[in-house]
Design a protein that fits this description.
By secondary structure, the chain is an alpha+beta fold. The chain has seven helices and 13 strands. The strands form four sheets. Strands 1-2-3-4-8-7 form a six-stranded antiparallel β-barrel. A three-stranded antiparallel sheet has the order 9-11-12, with helices on one face. A two-stranded antiparallel ribbon has the order 5-6. The radius of gyration is 21 Å and the shape is globular. It starts with 15 loop residues before the first strand and ends with a helix.
Length: 318
């Protein structure tokens, strides 16, 4: 039986990594090359996420680096509910597919498919053949690029909330894979990413664990702030498709909740009136997704009843 050669994970602790800064949002980082060192990679993430350190003219700086790399991520590369590890053979199939000029028509066709179906996923393009493996990689690549575009657009729309309710965007970055004999195909192998503010704290869901649980009053206040923050984000025209307590960090020094991971969001359309948008927000129930999940966890683990108010649901009589 043929055994594929699995690709080696390049994002390991203490490893250097060369980035290109595409756009900077702080005077501490300049456009152009930047060498960073990975200090702590996170294992259970959709995309590779890691704590990194790098030098600035003001001294060393720590930040979070998120890379939209189709090759890695246990919750990104999935088929039939299981992690589909990337292999050398998968990459060779995708390179051959691109070399034959098939990638651009495939991207256009996938865009048309997505426009007519909300349920399509990269695994729908996979078949146990050379072409099927290549198309799976192509579908993942296009999705990774779309996730990057969505996340950066979200930070742009939520610029007034940066540093207060979401991390501050520091820079857009890129790792370009050099593929021999394939000029003009960088987009098919591009690995974009973001550098954002490092929030020192813990996951909101961890506050329901007995060793970490604060007092009932404090816990209720933190969860209420998190639910209210979801409302603030909705107010700025962003609704979150992937909204749960694991996507909220509670800052250690202030107990203040910060939302992160905005790769899967929907935006208020320019010609959409406020009433229809508010109805849509009420259907997505972002604040309730946070609050009700925490109420359930706290009840199950601590035996405590939290009283959380949800403005969108109350205003609509739900």
């Amino acid at each position: 039986m043929f055994e594929p050669t699995l690709s080696e994970m390049p994002y390991l602790a203490d490893q250097p990594l060369d980035l290109t800064i595409i756009q900077t949002f702080t005077n501490l980082i300049c456009d152009g090359p930047l060498r960073i060192t990975i200090t702590k990679p996170f294992e259970v993430t959709q995309s590779p996420v890691m704590v990194v350190t790098f030098n600035t003219h003001s001294g060393p700086m720590n930040a979070i680096l998120k890379l939209y790399d189709r090759r890695f991520g246990p919750y990104f590369r999935t088929r039939e509910g299981k992690y589909a590890s990337h292999s050398v053979q998968d990459e060779a199939a995708w390179q051959d597919y691109v070399h034959r000029g098939m990638a651009n028509p495939f991207f256009h066709g996938m865009d048309e498919d997505i426009a007519t179906s909300m349920t399509l996923a990269p695994e729908d393009y996979h078949e146990d053949s050379w072409e099927g493996r290549a198309q799976y990689e192509g579908a993942l690549q296009l999705q990774a690029l779309q996730y990057f575009n969505t996340e950066t657009e979200t930070y742009k729309r939520l610029s007034e909330l940066q540093g207060l309710y979401i991390p501050t965007m520091l820079a857009h970055v890129r790792i370009s894979q050099l593929v021999p004999d394939l000029p003009g195909t960088e987009v098919y192998f591009r690995i974009p990413g973001i550098l954002i503010q490092l929030i020192d704290g813990w996951n909101l869901s961890q506050l329901a664990d007995p060793p970490n649980a604060p007092s009932q009053e404090k816990l209720e206040r933190i969860v209420q702030m998190a639910a209210d923050t979801a409302d603030f984000i909705n107010y700025y025209g962003v609704t979150m498709a992937d909204c749960h307590p694991q996507n909220v960090l509670v800052e250690r020094a202030t107990d203040h909740p910060f939302f992160f991971d905005f790769a899967q969001c929907w935006f208020k359309e320019e010609d959409q009136d406020d009433q229809s948008y508010q109805e849509y927000v009420s259907q997505t129930r972002n604040s309730a997704e946070i609050g009700m999940a925490m109420v359930k966890q706290v009840k199950e683990k601590l035996g405590i009843e939290l009283n959380i108010w949800y403005s969108n649901l109350e205003q609509n009589g739900q």
